[in-house]
Amino acid sequence: MVPAIATSTGPVLVIGSGLLGASVGLGLRHLGLDVYVRDSSPTTEAVAQDIGAGRSVRALQAAGEQLPEPELVVVAAPPDVVVELTVQALAEHPRAVVLDIASVKAPILDGVRAAGADLTRYVGTHPMAGREKSGPVAARGELFTSMPWVVCPGPEAGARAISVAKNLAVDLGATLTMMEPQEHDETVALISHVPQVMSSLLASRLQDTPLHHLSLAGQGLRDTTRIAGSDPGLWVQILSANAQPVVRSLHEVRKDLDRLIATLEHPEADGARLDIAQLMAEGNAGQARIPGKHGGAPKAFSTFTVAVDDTPGTIARLLTEIGEIGVNLEDMRLEHSPGQPVGLVTVSVEPNRYADLVDELQARGWKVVQ
Amino acid sequence: MVPAIATSTGPVLVIGSGLLGASVGLGLRHLGLDVYVRDSSPTTEAVAQDIGAGRSVRALQAAGEQLPEPELVVVAAPPDVVVELTVQALAEHPRAVVLDIASVKAPILDGVRAAGADLTRYVGTHPMAGREKSGPVAARGELFTSMPWVVCPGPEAGARAISVAKNLAVDLGATLTMMEPQEHDETVALISHVPQVMSSLLASRLQDTPLHHLSLAGQGLRDTTRIAGSDPGLWVQILSANAQPVVRSLHEVRKDLDRLIATLEHPEADGARLDIAQLMAEGNAGQARIPGKHGGAPKAFSTFTVAVDDTPGTIARLLTEIGEIGVNLEDMRLEHSPGQPVGLVTVSVEPNRYADLVDELQARGWKVVQ
């Protein structure tokens, strides 16, 4: 397949060569494009070149060569310098389409507009990919594979710029979604920034809990606090940049929290139980709306758990046999088993295959525990 | 292995034969004990007998037989009737040790004490096991395998009662932990009840979110809201019964939430960024204290993701090869891939095996994406 972007774009300059910038560079070089990388840190820029993300602009200039005029500039710098670098790129490269990939969109568009830059050549985008490590060493050309990439053209954006932005997302293997910048920011506030805040608020309660109490923690606590392990430096920038939509949601959370606290202070009062039930049911309703695998409509799968020796060989054999039985796995998870070397593999399958599969696995000697 | 409980206990009466009661019955029958089940619902009691959880007391009496005097009574009824049924069991069976398995302990001990019952023969316990389904049909004798079972004797409990309670937990395959009732309730408030509340509060924000926005949801939202799908009826009872410790924690959450809202309302103010960073770092600190697999000390694993065809066969082959390479899997997860039939398998391993494993998998042609 000839990538669409390769047919329409000459040299590409990637500004900022951390995890995301270097991954964009790697992905575009794989597609055969001529990529150049620039970073405020000379070391980061050199590492990005070393891993094959593109030619270092500093190295180029040290060799007495000129940066070829880019047709596409991707600004992949930290959120707090994106406006400045985007405005600068639009001015320095008057033929280039300039895209940014920061996780907040409306404030950046507003900033670029306020600077009087040429908005016909600018499109904000947000690839929803990442990993726990940062820096160019962690970069992978396949980082965007199957992840959403939201393209958020402002009203001034020209057709060529929009088309280049869409092609970039598709060519790097991402799933393209179009949104207004404001709509994007409200969406990520709700599906990403507020969950991050709630997870951090919850996890911070555990700072002084004795470890032998925490050893009783189940998968529920692990799941609800996993993202609380994220990088504070990055989240300061994201939360500051998207403060308004996040605060609006947090006010709603506080209303519900206040109501619950008032109720639990008098749990025997008339209506208290109904009030708690209502709050829990509202949580049920919200949770049920999150789409399942493959981005389809919300769907309920049947779930069971198999106790296995905790070795990759045994889990592999289990999955092989599920395949032999002819049932497709919708989700699976290896659960932690406090204190014992037994693995609990939780498997989700289509409800209409559930009973047969459990019977067949038990017949084959597997320990289906729940 | 001769189970310790079988050597010390005659007939066992299980009162309440839902998921947990029937699972206790099944597990004890597996150990060769003589088990009788009683439930307020004749149907539930009959189903429990049908699945082999024990002899139905109603069926016994209809056949003109007498219930043999039990040496152990396990009260496995819903939290709101546990005190009444425990007091009644202590009075009706003056030789029996009576245990309950409800998820809150101090209010039950207080209730049984207030009724003037014989506390030397009573011990409250809490097996931390469950599943998404309820009722005796969902019961499994292995439900408690590798799960914590907290035994919380009150100050009046006698040695025989404590010993029977410990043996029950161990014989059913659980991991025994001893705690004071009050300490137990504070612990579960923090590691189970407050996480449930936070997950429900977060998920209820999604009630009116358009589905095409929710289709951008990543694993973070899925993980933080998973337990919001829990049964409201059960949680009303748990939260009402453990209201005080839960409310204490929720007040602390509200303090942090208020602070964050105030900060985000003026994100450009002096000190705002530091304040957000602090809150995030506190979340980091709490999250890092949750013990990892096998209940050991907190431990960081190295994580990478492999893109695979989304079939059980391929995932099985991946795990087989990881086993061949000789690396032990610490955790794994199959991630959802919105819109594309590609599975992303995230694998956690010991940090010192990480680099070798990734190199070897890539050499074997696996697509390590991040």
List its traits.
homodimer, 370 residues, alpha/beta, Rossmann fold, 6-phosphogluconate dehydrogenase C-terminal fold, Alpha-Beta Plaits, 8-stranded mixed beta sheet, globular, oxidoreductase (chains A, B), NAD (chains A, B), Prephenate dehydrogenase (chains A, B), prephenate dehydrogenase (NAD+) activity (chains A, B), NAD+ binding (chains A, B)
Description:
The structure is a homodimer of 370-residue chains. By secondary structure, chain A is an alpha/beta fold. Chain A has three domains: 4-179, 3-Layer(aba) Sandwich (Rossmann fold); 186-288, 6-phosphogluconate dehydrogenase C-terminal fold (Orthogonal Bundle); 302-368, 2-Layer Sandwich (Alpha-Beta Plaits), CATH 3.30.70. The first copy, chain A, is 49% helix and 15% strand. Chain A is built from 15 helices and twelve strands. The first copy, chain A, has helices at residues 4-8, 19-30, 42-50, 57-62, 79-92, 106-114, 159-171, 181-204, 211-214, 219-225, 232-241, 243-265, 272-288, 312-325, 351-363, and strands at residues 12-15, 35-38, 55-56, 72-75, 97-100, 122-127, 148-152, 175-178, 302-309, 331-335, 342-349, 367-368. In chain A, the strands form two sheets. An eight-stranded mixed beta sheet of chain A has the order 3-2-1-4-5-6-7-8, sandwiched between helices. The first copy, chain A, has a four-stranded antiparallel beta sheet with strand order 10-11-9-12. In chain A, strand 7 (148-152), helix 7 (159-171) and strand 8 form a beta-alpha-beta unit. In chain A, helix 5 packs across helix 6 (106-114). The longest helix of chain A is centred in the middle third of the chain and has 24 residues, at 181-204. Chain A is globular. The two termini of chain A are 46 Å apart. Residues 293-299 of chain A have low confidence and may be disordered. Chains A and B meet through helix 8, helix 9, helix 10, helix 11 and helix 12 of A and helix 8, helix 9, helix 10, helix 11 and helix 12 of B. Chains A, B: Residues 10-294 form the Prephenate/arogenate dehydrogenase domain. Chains A, B: Keywords: Amino-acid biosynthesis, Aromatic amino acid biosynthesis, NAD, Oxidoreductase, Tyrosine biosynthesis.
